[in-house]
Amino acid sequence: MKLIEAEDVWFSYNHEVMALKGVSLGIGKGETVALIGQNGGGKTTLAKHFNGLLKPTKGRVLVKGVETRTLPANKLAFTVGYVFQNPAHQIFSSKVRDEVSFGPHNAGLSSDEVERRTAEAIEKVGLKGYEDVHPYDLDYGKQKLLTVASIMSMNPEVYCLDEPTTGQDHKGRWMVADLIHRLNDSGATVVVITHDMRFVAEVAKRVVLIADGRILADMPTKEIFEKSEMLRSAQIKPPQITELAHSLTRYNVPASILTVTEMADALQSILRLHQR
Amino acid sequence: MVGNIIAITVQDFTYAYPNHSAVLQEINFEVRKSEMVGIIGPNGAGKSTLCKSLNGLIPHFYGGSIAGSVTVADMDTMKHSVAELSLKVGLVFQEPSNQFSGVSTKVDEEVAFGMSMMGYPREEMRPRIEEALHAVGLQGLEERSPYELSGGQQQRLAIATVLAVRPEIIVMDEPTAQLDPVGKTEVFQTMRDLNGKGYTIIVAEHEIEAMAAFADRILVLDHAEIVTQGETRKVLNEVKKLKQMGIDPPSVTELCEILRGELKIDEGKFPIELNEAISLFSRVLREHAK
Ligand SMILES: Nc1ncnc2c1ncn2[C@@H]1O[C@H](COP(=O)(O)OP(=O)(O)OP(=O)(O)O)[C@@H](O)[C@H]1O
Ligand SMILES: Nc1ncnc2c1ncn2[C@@H]1O[C@H](COP(=O)(O)OP(=O)(O)OP(=O)(O)O)[C@@H](O)[C@H]1O
Ligand SMILES: [Mg+2]
Ligand SMILES: [Mg+2]
Question: Which residues face B113 on adjacent strands?
Fold first, then answer.
């Protein structure tokens, strides 16, 4: 059984717009999956189905075998945590600490446990020292990290992160990447939405490409970035370093390169080989 | 294209939000008309604060304490109101929903809002609305509520509301953060085209690869100060310095820094765009194969 299963999901916000048009996909325990695709393609809409914030107009979504339509959203929050694309849609407390402790507190955990989880989550996203700051006085990048922390304190099995890298600098991106790797190592499942293809290449093994409410492709990261034309039709470009590799294949540079380090290694070995 | 007319002068500018310590320290720079200048820097460096200082929101809306001066389109921001300044300077906010008037129920009304505040006649507004929505790829969504758009579509709308007003100076605070990769390039291209028509563009971004292809100059902000400013290539070639500050240089530039020994090229001559990197590496690999 998959942890999350979407079966022919259709969804419309109102009667004119059909935001999802027959989406089917399964996500297994421990996977890290990236959802990518053009603006308005349906990524956020799909992710909100995973934690029951939205229910399908037609079709169904199962979380651990149970249909989301039969579950209240607050029940699902223990299994699937969704971090909003826009931090302003999620943040409502006037202190960083309260924002992070709200979930576990509301779930009725002991105050020791609430405190422990809050401190741990704040520490993990690098916001230690900001406990008493008003969330809106944080810069945008830190607001995004705060919204991740307030889901971490719930300790869900699945994390849906909607554009966690938006507005992050180099350090913030690495912190989010590292966080995802650590969550994964601890057995959690991660669904991450992002427009940062360099980030996708670094963290996800599987990519789902979404455009116009449909899944265009669902395949390993290494394969999808070789399909330049299909990506282009969904307004996506591969990471710059992968595009460089594609232009150098006639010199034996592998087209499957995803990171700067891989590229540097490949070029170094080609250059050395010829020197001998 | 870039003339000698000065569009923006920031002189010894220091700013602190009320009851906080300074988040901009002794800032000095000039921007000429028709230039595109990028502002980069790690989270919390002060990029948004600087953007808000260019259209008068700081000090008029945020208060706080100030030293030095900011002059845009020959107006001292301290001495002119936000309304007066808004005729010449448009700001695209980092957070798109902060851009919205909150009173428009439709996308096209939202784009019209800024113009109607300035008293434009209706006939003149229609073509401008169309042009602005087209520029950001939102044609067809005129009737939709601004709040019934995806995140990226809202960001596109925020850009359109400023484009429609056609202020001669456009300041954009991470305008492409939520845009899809092709959309990011298209927005930068649109801004570049505006440069050609005499508009001056300031853009704060973490999106360095798009910036590399379009900006004339870059200012690097770190911990409230400008630590480097100069021509785009020169600034982006300082790979180590950028990474230390928490900024990602373009991938191809970073690659050249790693392969510096093998490539035998100096810092300052590293490619910053994909096409340059393709020609460089094709040449190197071709020569090696001989
Ligand atoms: N309204 C405010 N009141 C008090 N402090 C603020 C306010 N807005 C921002 N700050 C602080 O000012 C500093 C600079 O913030 P600013 O938002 O300008 O940074 P930034 O470079 O735009 O960051 P980011 O890349 O995350 O958007 C930060 O320390 C931030 O916490
Ligand atoms: N609240 C809403 N009411 C009506 N339509 C909406 C609403 N939110 C989104 N839509 C529409 O549903 C479609 C899918 O939107 P969604 O937010 O899922 O896209 P996305 O892939 O997350 O895009 P982005 O990359 O811009 O965040 C779009 O056509 C969008 O305009
Ligand atoms: Mg979205
Ligand atoms: Mg900012």
Answer: none
- Looking at chain B, the domain(s) classified CATH 3.40.50.300 span 1-88+167-232
Q: Determine, for residues A39 and B286 on separate chains, whether the beta-carbon distance falls below 8 Å.
A: no
If you write DSSP's letter for every residue of B267-283 in order, what string do you get?
TTS---SHHHHHHHHHH
The residue length of chain B stands at 290
The response to whether residue A137 sits with its C-beta less than 6 Å from ligand 1 reads yes
Nearest to A171 among B184, B246, B285 (CB): B246
CB atoms near residue A83 (< 10 Å): 24
Which chain B residues have a beta carbon less than 8 Å from that of A262?
none
Between the two ends of chain A, the Cα-to-Cα distance in Å is: 53
pLDDT of residue B96: 87
What average pLDDT does the segment B171-175 reach?
Answer: 96
Handedness of CA A234, A240, A245, A246 (dihedral sign): positive
Fold category of B1-88+167-232 in CATH = Rossmann fold (3.40.50)
Which amino acid residue places its CA nearest to atom 6 of ligand 2?
B148
CA dist., res. A67 & res. A6, Å (int):
10
Closest chain B residue by Cα to residue A133 = B20
B150: Cβ below 6 Å to ligand 2? yes
How much is the ipTM here?
0.91
Structure confidence at residue A141 as a pLDDT band (50, 70, 90) = confident
Q: Would you place residue B102 in the very low, low, confident or very high pLDDT band (cuts 50, 70, 90)?
A: confident
Write down how long chain A is. Answer: 276
- The domain spans of chain A are 1-79+158-165+187-221, 81-155
What percentage of chain B reaches a pLDDT higher than 90? 83
Task: Say which residue, A73 or B170, is predicted with more confidence.
Answer: B170
Which of A172, A248, A264 comes nearest B282 by C-beta? A248
Q: Which two tokens stand for residue A102?
A: 């709200």
Interface contact B251-A169, CB threshold 8 A: no
Ligand 1, atom nearest to B62 Cα = 1
Q: For a substitution probing ligand 2, which of A17, A193, A216 has the most ligand atoms within 8 Å of its CB?
A: A17
CATH architecture of the domain with range A1-79+158-165+187-221: 3-Layer(aba) Sandwich (3.40)
CB A145 within 8 A of CB A151: no
Residue B227 Cα, gap to closest chain A Cα (Å): 17
Q: What is the pTM of this model?
A: 0.93
